[in-house]
């Protein structure tokens, strides 16, 4: 009986497998040599009792994985089995005998075997087609055909261009929300719109990160470009959730925030286009024109050298942004841990933010 493997995120498993076969790795070098040699191959990336039970014959090696060795061993019939860290070749010329009852949509013998072994063992399996000169990765119930660097880079460049446009739109609606917060005119629609744009940016980021992994050493410049473009986006999401997600005695703030974050992650791409769905995920209901009041986390995050502890105390004391904006020095001094210098820094910082935000809005 096959061992049970713990539940894992299929996307994470795929990313890890793609990193193993990314350009610049020894394994990818060996695979490209196999394609050029037109011999085909079947390679299992891991070994355990399940793999041993589903295979037979061949011979044990336990030698360092090199591109040349992989290419030469692929000339023989049978599968090559490497360790899970993809550093050593453990067996060669092995006959794989997967459970025939495992469903598969593949037609070729090598691809059917690869698909079933991947599903049966939980390890990634690579099938190199002799006739088609393609490299297929079977992992987490998926079949992923590896593309050459040029094709991946072209798609990555297109995704980066899309990301730049969406990031610009997010910045615009986020700036507008700051102005509305200062004027105390925020509605649920305004909040949902900013979160919608932010989530769209995050989903494009995930796609580009996939290209970075797939490109391996060729993806370093793309990664630098991505990091510069979306620096702070996760912090923006966290602060927006903290500002607007309602809480209660039964659902205190940390729990309510975690529930909202999970609900946003669970929204499908079509649902994300519906502001009512986004508002619902935030726990704000689907009445979009109802007033919404921020707590002040986003505004206080703009004041330098203000610790999380002081921020939490300020929010607990004033509850909402508007009382905080109108608070004088004496009122700020009533908050534990806020001395005279810090009170003046907070008062001056909030005043500067309000003035700058309103000037930018009307320029």
Summarize the structure in words.
This protein is α+β, with helices and mostly antiparallel strands. The protein has 3 domains: 10-146, YojJ-like (1, CATH 3.40.1700; 148-294, DNA integrity scanning linker region (Ferritin, Up-down Bundle); 299-363, 5' to 3' exonuclease, C-terminal subdomain (DNA polymerase, domain 1), CATH 1.10.150.20. It contains 17 helices and 8 strands. Strands 1, 2, 3, 4, 5, 6, 7 and 8 form an 8-stranded mixed sheet that branches. Helix 1 (10-20) runs parallel beside helix 7. The chain is elongated.
Keywords:
single chain; 363 residues; alpha+beta; YojJ-like (1; DNA polymerase, domain 1; 3 domains; eight-stranded mixed sheet
Number of domains: 3
- Give the overall average pLDDT: 92
CATH architecture label of the largest domain: Up-down Bundle
Helix/strand order, N-terminal first: HHEHEEHEEHEEEHHHHHHHHHHHH
- Helix residue percentage: 55-70%
Shape: elongated
CATH structural fold name of the largest domain: Ferritin
- At the first level of CATH, the class of the largest domain is Mainly Alpha
Topology:
Elements lengths: L9 H11 L5 H12 L3 E5 L3 H5 L1 E2 L2 E6 L2 H7 L5 E4 L5 E9 L12 H13 L3 E4 L6 E5 L2 E4 L3 H35 L4 H28 L4 H10 L3 H12 L8 H14 L2 H4 L2 H7 L15 H4 L7 H11 L2 H5 L3 H5 L6 H23 L1
In short:
This protein has 363 residues and is an alpha+beta fold. The protein has helices at 10-20, 26-37, 49-53, 67-73, 109-121, 149-183, 188-215, 220-229, 233-244, 253-266, 269-272, 275-281, 297-300, 308-318, 321-325, 329-333, 340-362; strands spanning 41-45, 55-56, 59-64, 79-82, 88-96, 125-128, 135-139, 142-145. A hairpin with a 5-residue loop joins strand 4 and strand 5.
């Amino acid at each position: 009986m096959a061992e049970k493997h713990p539940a894992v995120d299929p996307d994470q498993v795929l990313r890890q497998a793609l990193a193993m076969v990314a350009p610049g790795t020894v394994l990818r070098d060996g695979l490209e040599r196999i394609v050029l040699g037109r011999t085909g191959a079947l390679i299992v990336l891991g070994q355990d009792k399940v793999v041993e039970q589903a295979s037979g014959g061949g011979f044990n090696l336990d030698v360092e994985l090199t591109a040349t060795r992989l290419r030469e061993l692929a000339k023989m019939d049978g599968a090559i089995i490497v360790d899970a860290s993809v550093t050593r070749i453990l067996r060669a010329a092995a006959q794989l005998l997967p459970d025939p009852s495992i469903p598969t949509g593949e037609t070729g013998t090598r691809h059917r075997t690869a698909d079933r072994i991947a599903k049966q063992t939980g390890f990634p399996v690579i099938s190199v087609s002799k006739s088609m000169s393609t490299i297929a990765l079977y992992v987490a119930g998926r079949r992923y055909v590896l593309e050459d660097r040029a094709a991946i880079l072209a798609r990555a460049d297109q995704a980066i261009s899309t990301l730049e446009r969406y990031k610009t739109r997010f910045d615009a609606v986020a700036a507008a929300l700051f102005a509305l917060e200062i004027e105390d005119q925020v509605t649920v629609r305004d909040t949902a719109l900013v979160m919608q744009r932010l989530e769209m940016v995050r989903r494009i980021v995930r796609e580009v990160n996939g290209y970075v992994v797939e490109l391996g050493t060729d993806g370093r410049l793309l990664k630098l470009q991505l990091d510069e473009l979306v620096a702070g986006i996760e912090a923006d999401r966290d602060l927006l959730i903290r500002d607007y997600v309602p809480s209660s005695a039964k659902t205190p703030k940390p729990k309510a925030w975690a529930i909202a974050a999970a609900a946003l992650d669970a929204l499908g791409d079509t649902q994300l286009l519906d502001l009512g769905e986004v508002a619902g995920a935030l726990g704000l209901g689907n009445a979009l024109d109802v007033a919404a009041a921020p707590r002040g986390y986003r505004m206080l995050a703009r004041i330098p050298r203000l610790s999380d502890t002081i921020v939490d105390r300020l929010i607990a004391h004033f509850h909402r942004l508007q009382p905080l904006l109108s608070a004088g020095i004496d009122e700020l001094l009533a908050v534990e841990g806020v001395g005279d210098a810090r009170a003046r820094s907070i008062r001056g910082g909030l005043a500067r933010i309000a003035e700058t935000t309103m000037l930018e809005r009307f320029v």
